[in-house]
Amino acid sequence: xxxxxxxxxxxxxxxxxxxxxxxxxxxxxxxxxxxxxxxxxxxxxxxxxxxxxxxxxxxxxxxxxxxxxxxxxxxxxxxxxxxxxxxxxxxxxxxxxxxxxxxxxxxxxxxxxxxxxxxxxxxxxxxxxxxxxxxxxxxxxxxxxxxxxxxxxxxxxxxxxxxxxxxxxxxxxxxxxxxxxxxxxxxxxxxxxxxxxxxxxxxxxxxxxxxxxxxxxxxxxxxxxxxxxxxxxxxxxxxxxxxxxxxxxxxxxxxxxxxxxxxxxxxxxxxxxxxxxxxxxxxxxxxxxxxxxxxxxxxxxxx
Length: 303
Description:
Elements: H1 4-29, H2 36-47, H3 54-66, H4 71-91, E1 101-102, E2 105-106, H5 108-111, H6 114-133, H7 142-157, H8 162-171, H9 179-204, H10 209-236, H11 239-242, H12 248-251, H13 257-261, H14 263-280, H15 289-298
Antiparallel strand pairs: 1-2
């Protein structure tokens, strides 16, 4: 067993520090421009508003499992958290999920206003790709690595991944879904970005084709397990622990694993996916223990 809490604390702090340093540099370039301060305040509010940093942690843990954490790992971890933060801002908007709480604090559009929230999300979205493209150096393989990372992240976050999943989710309100339809929706909406986190970590550490294939299987199982557990804690936890409104999915009559399978079977599904993820890592040594313990953590968390 790894010391996962220490690893998480170390790389949560590292990720947050780098994100805020990047944002401060951007803000300093536009400090005198009307409207800039409010935009950057909203971006900072959303980036620094707590959060488990699961996706950056997966980037770091994967790089560690393959070889070693490096500058590309830092860049990719920051980029994927920008994408995640943007997606939460937009998901919370009245036109989407219409949430007032996120991580125990007012959502971005409540703390600021809808227009500012939309712009903050847009800016974080594009910042992700600016970070990766700006990381290119004179090294021979640097541009190829950056291009691969941009391709991977854009596909996972756009019309082939997260955005498609959100569209399916909105269309599914008040409609029954079969198990395979629900799984497909969540593999896009939640799983695609989690899979991207693992694959970006693998890319940063120059994983072999065999390692990447195994890590892709791990990520697919962990990504779906994350959403199953989200559905579980939406009914078993409370608003204070969750940091958002408990029972919101049920209130909106959105299909979930709990509504489809029942609580006990949903928990069994999460456990099954955890075991699939662990089995995918059998060819890795103890350096992958952080990934193994992250799979266990994902299906045992209560927020």
